Amino acid sequence: MSEKRRHFSPEEKVGILKKHLLEKVPVSTLCDQHGIHPTMFHRWLKEFFEGGALVFQRLKANGSNKLEKRISHLEQKLTQKNEVLSELMEEHVKLKKSLGEI
Fold first, then answer.
1. Tell me, what's the pLDDT at 51?
2. Which of 34, 49, 85, 101 could form a disulfide with 96, with the two C-beta atoms 3.0–4.6 Å apart?
3. Any idea what DSSP says for residue 7?
4. Which residues contact 21 (CB under 8 A, 6 or more apart)?
């Protein structure tokens, strides 16, 4: 009879890899405990390290997106303040002219 395939969640896979990488549990022990083939373990390890760069790229992209949004927001705010100041100065000049001070 064939064995049923067990599917591991991403969190479970990372947990198994973590035990090997941080706690130095041998691959053979982990494979026996979880009923996986060493080839599968090494495939997960390869995918983990290949995908690791994407995490940092996303973090960098998120950080730069937040920064760009903040800059854009502040530029809009500055533009609005400049417009208000310009209107106030224009009204001030009109008032001075009407009072004959200019």
1. 84
2. 101
3. -
4. none
Q: Residue ranges of the chain with pLDDT lower than 50?
A: 1
- Positive or negative: CA dihedral 8, 14, 15, 18: positive
Q: What would the two tokens of residue 64 be?
A: 């730069």
Place of tokens 């400049």: 82
* 3: DSSP letter: P
Q: Which fold has domain 10-99?
A: Arc Repressor Mutant, subunit A (1.10.10)
Residues written for the chain = 102
Q: Domains of the chain: which residue ranges? A: 10-99
Q: Which of 13, 22, 19 is CA-nearest to residue 46? A: 13
Amino acid of residue 6? R
Q: What local confidence, expressed as pLDDT, does residue 1 receive?
A: 45
pLDDT tens per residue, range 32-59: 999 999 999 999 999 998 888 777 777 6
Amino acid at 54: L
